[in-house]
C-alpha cells in the first residue's frame, strides 16, 4: 500500500509520511489472512535456505497472534510438518525477535534442542485504529524467520553476548488496552476503541533512541567490540528518523545501517528478520561483516546482540 493510497482515507500526505517517518510503501494482509499464514511462509523459506527439513522447536515473536489462546506457534509447527516439537509465542512487541534470539540461543546452549526456528511476524493492520493517522502511516504487516542451530561459538553466525532490558513503568506509551485480564475483570463496560493499538509518538521516539543506543553499546562492550568494529547495524526499523538519531548517538556512519523501512514500514517483530533478508538480497550484508542487531519496543523493552555474518544462500 502506497502513501498515496493512504491519503484516500486519511488526512495525510506522501510528503509528511516520507519526511517524518521515511516510509513510502508497506504491505497489509487481505481479510482472512492471519499472522500464522505469513509466519509459516517465512519459516518454510528459512528452512529451505538452511537446507534442512525441520527444526527442533518453534518460537514465534508476535504482538498479533492469531487468537489470545492458544499460542500460535504450535499451529505453525504442525503446518510445517515438524511433529510434536516444543512451540511457543513470545511477547516483547518490537523487541520480540531479539528477545527470541536470546531465548533460542539459551535453549540450544542448555542442550534441550539442537536447532530452532525463531520467527518474527506481525499484522498490525489488524489492530490499527483506521481513524488514527499517526500510527496507520507507520506500520506494515510482515514476517521473517531464521534457523538457529548448535555450533561453535567462534564460527560465523554465532550470536554474541546479549543486552536485554525492560521498563514497565512506561507500559502505557505503547499499548492495546483491551482484551486482557484487567479489562475482563473490570466491572466497567469496555470502550470499543480499547481494541486498537495506541502510541505516544514523541515519548516513544526519545526512549527508542536512548535505549537502542545504550543497549548497543552494552552488547558491543560485552563482546569486546567498539562501534568502529561494526560493519553493519540492523536496527528495528521503527522510523527513519529514529535510525538517523541512533546512528548519531553511536557515531556510526548512517550508511552502515541496513534499512528497508521505506519499502515495508515498521513491521514490529518482523522488522529485523525482514531487514536481514533484504540486506542480504541487496548485497548490503556480506559474509564476514561484523553485524550489530538492536531493537526497542513496547513494554518498554529493548535488546541487542552482535554476530559475524555467515555464508547464507537465500531461498527464493
Ligand atoms: O516501534 C516503535 C514505533 N514507534 C515509532 O517509531 C514512533 C516514534 N514517534 C515518531 O516517529 C513521531 O512521534 C511520529 C512520526 C509518530 C509523529 O511525529 P511528531 O513529529 O512527533 O508529530 P506530532 O505527533 O507531534 O504531530 C505533529 C503534527 C500534529 O499536527 P499539529 O497539532 O501540529 O497541527 C499532528 O496532528 O503532525 C500531525 N500529524 C500528521 N499530519 C499528517 C500526525 N500524524 C499525521 C499524519 N499526516 N499522518
TrEMBL record:
Its EC number is 2.3.1.180. Residues 88-168 form the Beta-ketoacyl-[acyl-carrier-protein] synthase III N-terminal domain. It is found in: Cytoplasm. It is an enzyme of class 2 (transferase). It catalyses: malonyl-[ACP] + acetyl-CoA + H(+) = 3-oxobutanoyl-[ACP] + CO2 + CoA. Pathway: Lipid metabolism; fatty acid biosynthesis. Residues 220-309 form the Beta-ketoacyl-[acyl-carrier-protein] synthase III C-terminal domain. The active site is at 94, 236, 266. Pfam families: ACP_syn_III, ACP_syn_III_C. SUPFAM superfamilies: Thiolase-like. Gene3D superfamilies: 3.40.47.10. The keyword Lipid metabolism applies. Residues 237-241 are annotated as: ACP-binding. The keyword Methyltransferase does not apply. Keywords: Acyltransferase, Cytoplasm, Fatty acid biosynthesis, Fatty acid metabolism, Lipid biosynthesis, Lipid metabolism, Multifunctional enzyme, Transferase. Homodimer. NCBIfam families: fabH, PRK09352.1. Catalyzes the condensation reaction of fatty acid synthesis by the addition to an acyl acceptor of two carbons from malonyl-ACP. Catalyzes the first condensation reaction which initiates fatty acid synthesis and may therefore play a role in governing the total rate of fatty acid production. Possesses both acetoacetyl-ACP synthase and acetyl transacylase activities. Its substrate specificity determines the biosynthesis of branched-chain and/or straight-chain of fatty acids. The last Arg residue of the ACP-binding site is essential for the weak association between ACP/AcpP and FabH. Belongs to the thiolase-like superfamily. FabH family. This is Beta-ketoacyl-[acyl-carrier-protein] synthase III. It comes from Streptomyces shaanxiensis.
